[in-house]
Amino acid sequence: MRKKKNSVPAWANELITLYESDATNQFILSGNVNDRVLMPDHKKDTGTLVEFMIEVLLRSFDVVITYDLGSGIRIEKGGPIFSQWPRMKSDPHLPKTPRPAIELLNHYFRYCANLATLGHKNLRVAGIIKAAHFVTPDMRMGVNHDLNAMALLMRDWSVESSLTRQHLATFFITENLNDIHTLLANNTRASNVTVPLPDGETIHEALMRWSTKFPLALKQYKEDLETPANGLTGTTLGSIESLLKTKEYTKEEITPGDLADLKKELVEKDCNGLIEFIESDLDLDIYAGAETIKNWIRQDIKLWEKSDLEAMPMGYLLCGPVGTGKTFLVKCLAGEAGVPVVKLKNFRDKWVGSTEGNLERIFRLLHALGRCIVFIDEADQTLGKRDSGNNDSGLSGRVYSMIAQEMSNPSNRGRILWILASSRPDLIEVDLKRPGRIDVKMPIFPTTTREESFNLIKILTGRRGLAFEEDTENGLGDDLPVMLTPGAAEALAMKIYRTVKTEGISPDEALAGILKGYQSPVPEEVMDFQIRIAMNEASDLDFVPDYYTQHFGK
Q1: Are residues 457 and 450 in contact, defined by beta-carbon separation less than 8 angstroms?
Q2: CATH class of residue range 277-443
Q3: How do residues 480-506 score in pLDDT, each as one tens digit?
Q4: In a designed cystine with 340, which of 162, 181, 316, 372 is the match (CB 3.0 to 4.6 A)?
């Protein structure tokens, strides 16, 4: 391989070093492998990963062979040399189906090794298996002897000394490491190299190259390409190039106001609906009550803004009864924090290995975004269990392991803040809630006084354009409930609005009538149970109002 440290990305330098030091000759490239790659010689702006490998990394190789299910075997480089193989002279047919194709590659690699042993030219040969997860997929759910045989042959390319002594390099390309056969993924003689999403510097370089091709689309940033580069981190070069082509064709300029929306659209498209950005124009002032918690969060935001990360937590746990506004608190935080807030959607899949692959893709995105907040709602259901028995073939345990490892990664401190929300935090594995993963556990409670309850109802009806008289609260007396959740108050506000509009009475009359027949939407025993759980989870007793300490103890 040709070493050009100043003109290739870091992952490519890692690969070069491993090969030229004889540490390994087999590589599994995973991650952002379907994106465009900047070509260092500027003959063309970008190319596919395989084009980059052939034209840059494998420039000094004599023969380069690729294989995938669609195209079969292709001799990308060194066709005349390959045609001298006696097998080709007797039967020039190149098979397309996996087993015969892998056997042919294995035969050719051994033929070249034998030539070198006999003192003939030691050919530099590279084999690239594209979309390797389709050739030798993960086999956790069953046994397939053909697949196992192919995986063994492919693994031997990195193990047998007769092959490793020659100049042989083999590459398996897959988006997710978990998708390929475990014999390959867990091969200690192979190196796993992650191709990351492009960072701001890489996007800036790409925009500089594209600025002459798409002058209208980038008109506003002609002298400042760093701004859109930083604004589009987390997206792929392919998505950005496609966006620029569209804008140039429609004669539209990318404006500063477009960047956030463009990034959201591109990232969500690239992630196939696995995540969504929480957009919010709210702030923590809108959230009623929980002053101690809001103050703590604001202190953390200030530390983050100053890049003072020593006391910055790795994550929060928001716990409390259903309807207490845990998700709403996150929306308020999203509007105040000034960093992307990403919500994990349903990443679980029925296909073997797909769930783990989805998580790999999500983690790559989070690392590319830079500073961000990750929100996992209903965490007790989403995060999996260390041991789920045989009910899901171990999937829940693998999900648990992957998320636990990512949450405790020390390099994420100050870059990724995890927020878990649950009304049943007791069902979340203890290890996931420990310091170093979740440092602050914040209980969210219903109102503790009738005044708080009235103010909550007043705020929510006010958003619907309704107002109460000044002395309304005094006239309601004991009809005003204590331990009112924001969810229950929202239902009351909606009912008040409906009554006012359909019966033509004042908001005060509507509220008084509705409260006469009010029943909590959550049974009392359930509410009490979830309050006690939240109190027990609190990382600081200052988060627990005196009302609950007195009524429920600690």
Answers
A1: no
A2: alpha beta
A3: 888 888 889 999 999 999 999 999 999
A4: 372
